[in-house]
Design goal:
The protein has about 425 residues and is an alpha+beta fold. Helix content is about 15%, strand content about 25%. It starts with a helix and ends with a strand.
Amino acid sequence: MKKILFSMLIIASCFGVANAQLIVDENGRTGVGIETNDTLISELSINGTGHANATVSIDTPKDAVYSLYIYGKAMENNLYHGIRANISALFNTRSVYGFHSSITSGSDCYATVGVYGKSGVSLNKRNYGIVGILNGISSSENNYYGSAILGNSTNTILPTIEGRYAGYFYGDTRVTGTLTAGAVVTSSDYRLKENVRSLSSTDGCLGKLMSMNVVEFNNKQREYEVSKSELDEEEQMEAELLEQDSTIATMNLHEKSTEVKARWFEEGSPIIKNKHYGLIAQELQKIYPDLVIESQDGYLAINYLEIIPLLIRSVQELKSELDATKGSNAPIQKAQTRSTDEEATDMDAIVTTLYQNTPNPFTESTLIQCDVAEEVIKADLYVYDMNGKQITVYAITERGATNITIEGRSLEAGMYLYALIADGQVIDTKRMILTK
């Protein structure tokens, strides 16, 4: 008797089925909206005979919007659940699903959603669309591993998870807002790598790094089209719910149109209003193509994390060059002070010295000053790229204070080394940067 009353209550409150065919077979199974000579399979079947593995089965008519529609009203100080499933799983059970949603649809559907959660408003800062909690105590002995929420974009097979995670995403993951984390780590275990090779100075990490164009920019707002008819359906559903509440008389709906544009980022988001700093993917692609990835939406993205090892290698190159300069047996003579108020009149007092180019960095041209002692027979200024390849050489014929002008149009943008060599001895080596 209780089973029949419960069945009728579901029918009346959820579907409002009038004049529906109600039958109860000899085994106590209940059917609604079916022929009397049909054999019932489920304990409760609506618009069909049911399914062998289902206690309650609902076959939705083609003209129905919902298979199951529940409207409830939570009372003050009460704990309320629209739907709650308490399942006690036995050991050796193959799989247990608290809620299982599987959608098969044609390609002409506007959207398909397996689970849709929309929260209300709570002033105590606890508003959640969907909540996932991983039960069990973290224990390597009991192996209570898994994830509270699993996202799998590659296939329908559930992956084995080693560890405990609040969220585990199997496939590409995109975040349109700010991602905040205590730490961001990347798998880097030697056991996960192959074809490992250490970078050397011949790879030119420093030169490539200096040719990277660092820019500041603002992000554009991105939009996408949304069918207005789909919005209307949800708005109408909300309006129906509000009409059942006597405290709310009407609901303001948007103006009708064929389509509307939804914005990717919220108004006032730091992603839009703040200045950002980085590289241009198309430019970096020419230097390090493997660090540039084409996203599934067709736009280019940069793997900034893997630029860090290149920075480390560049610092190592600079340190090696500095050590080589300090350890050289060639006499490196520098003027301790250079007066800007008077010119040297005694040529015997001039010490062969190389000075930093100005301006540096430069775009059009730069001036390199040097002092060459009177006794020097042969003096030259050599220019090298960061790989040590000689680019050009300038013969210095004058003695005393002299200078050489280098035109930017004669070189590619990047970092260069220039060295003053007098009578076969390296006097000094310095760096200059050309930007375009």
